[in-house]
C-alpha cells in the first residue's frame, strides 16, 4: 500500500477503451503530431507504430501521432551513471522505463532532486520498436500539489475522448502539413522578444567553430531567458537568421540537441524549447 502522504490512484479504467480506439484508427483519422500529449502508461503500452512499423516511425495513440508525451507517476528503480539517469515510472496503469541524459550541471541538479517513491511529472519522447518501447525524458519535475495527479488523468480522459470522436471522413493531417499551417499563423508578432531585440547574426567566429561549438551556440539561443519564458519556444527560422552558416548545418545542430534531450518540439515541427527551465 502506498504511504498516506501519497495519493492512491488506479486510473486504469480511464484507458480501458484504448484498444478499441486503436482498432478503429484509419488513415483518414490520422492527424499530425500534437505538441505535448498527456498520456498514461497503459495508453503507451497499447500504442502502435504508424506505417509499417519501421525503426523511427512515430507511435500512434487514438489516431494521433505522438511527438512529446507527458506522464505523471511514482519513481522507482532510479539508477545513476555519469552520462545518464534511468528510472521506472509507475502511474497506476503500468510501468514505463525512462532515461534522462546528463549533459551539464543543470541536468545533474534536476536528476539529483528526484528520488524513489517521489511523484513527478515527466515530459519526454517515445522511441524504439513496437515490441520494445523506450522513453527519453526532457524534463522531470517533482509534484508537490497532488491535485496535479488528478488533473493529469482528467486531461488524459479529455484527450482520449476528443481524439476518438474525430470524424472518419475528415482529411488526413500529417506533421508536415501541421507545421506548414502553423508557420503561417506564427508571424513576426509572435517572435520571441529576445530575437526581435537581438537579431544580429553570429559572425565569422561561429562559422569557424567546430560542430560541437555550433551545437552549443544553437542551444544557448534556446536558453536565453526570453526564449525559456516563451510558451511556444523559438521557430527554427529565427535560429537560422542568427547564423551566417548553411541552413543544413543549423538544422543538424537542432536535431542533435533534440536527440540528447536539450530541446524539444512544442506546437509543431518548427518550434522548439529548451528542456532547461531554471
Automatic annotation (TrEMBL):
GO terms for biological process: DNA replication; double-strand break repair via homologous recombination; nucleotide-excision repair. It is found in: Nucleus. Keywords: DNA damage, DNA recombination, DNA repair, DNA replication, DNA-binding, Nucleus. InterPro entries: NA-bd_OB-fold, RFA2-like, Rfa2/RPA32, RPA_C, WH-like_DNA-bd_sf, WH_DNA-bd_sf. Coiled coil: none annotated. It comes from the Eukaryota. CDD domains: RPA2_DBD_D. Its main location: nucleus. One of its GO terms (cellular component) is DNA replication factor A complex. GO terms for molecular function: single-stranded DNA binding. Gene3D superfamilies: Nucleic acid-binding proteins, Winged helix-like DNA-binding domain superfamily/Winged helix DNA-binding domain. Residues 1-18 have a biased composition (Low complexity). Residues 19-36, 172-211 have a biased composition (Polar residues). Belongs to the replication factor A protein 2 family. Component of the replication protein A complex (RPA) required for DNA recombination, repair and replication. The activity of RPA is mediated by single-stranded DNA binding and protein interactions. This is Replication protein A C-terminal domain-containing protein. It comes from Panicum hallii.
Amino acid at each position: 500500500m502506498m504511504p498516506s502522504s501519497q495519493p492512491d490512484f488506479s486510473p486504469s479504467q480511464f484507458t480501458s477503451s484504448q484498444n478499441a480506439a486503436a482498432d478503429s484508427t484509419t488513415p483518414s483519422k490520422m492527424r499530425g503530431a500534437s505538441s505535448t500529449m498527456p498520456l498514461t502508461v497503459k495508453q503507451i503500452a497499447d500504442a502502435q507504430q504508424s506505417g509499417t512499423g519501421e525503426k523511427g516511425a512515430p507511435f500512434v495513440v487514438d489516431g494521433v501521432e505522438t511527438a512529446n508525451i507527458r506522464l505523471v507517476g511514482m519513481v522507482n528503480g532510479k539508477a545513476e551513471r555519469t552520462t545518464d539517469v534511468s528510472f521506472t515510472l509507475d502511474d497506476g496503469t503500468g510501468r514505463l522505463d525512462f532515461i534522462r541524459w546528463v549533459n551539464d550541471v543543470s541536468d545533474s541538479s534536476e536528476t539529483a532532486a528526484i528520488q524513489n517513491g517521489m511523484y513527478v511529472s515527466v515530459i519526454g519522447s517515445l522511441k524504439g520498436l513496437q515490441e520494445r518501447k523506450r522513453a527519453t525524458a526532457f524534463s522531470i519535475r517533482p509534484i508537490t500539489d497532488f491535485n496535479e495527479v488528478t488533473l493529469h488523468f482528467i486531461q488524459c480522459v479529455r484527450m482520449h475522448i476528443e481524439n476518438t470522436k474525430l470524424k472518419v471522413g475528415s482529411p488526413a493531417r500529417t506533421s508536415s502539413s501541421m507545421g506548414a499551417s502553423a508557420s503561417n499563423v506564427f508571424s513576426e508578432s509572435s517572435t520571441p522578444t529576445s530575437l526581435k531585440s537581438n537579431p544580429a547574426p553570429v559572425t565569422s567566429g561561429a562559422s569557424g567553430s567546430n560542430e560541437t561549438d555550433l551545437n552549443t551556440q544553437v542551444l544557448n539561443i534556446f536558453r536565453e531567458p526570453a526564449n525559456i519564458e516563451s510558451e511556444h519556444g523559438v521557430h527554427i527560422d529565427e535560429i537560422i537568421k542568427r547564423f551566417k552558416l548553411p541552413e543544413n548545418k543549423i538544422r543538424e545542430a537542432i536535431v542533435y540537441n533534440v536527440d540528447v534531450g536539450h530541446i524539444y518540439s512544442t506546437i509543431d515541427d518548427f518550434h522548439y524549447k529548451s528542456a532547461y527551465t531554471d
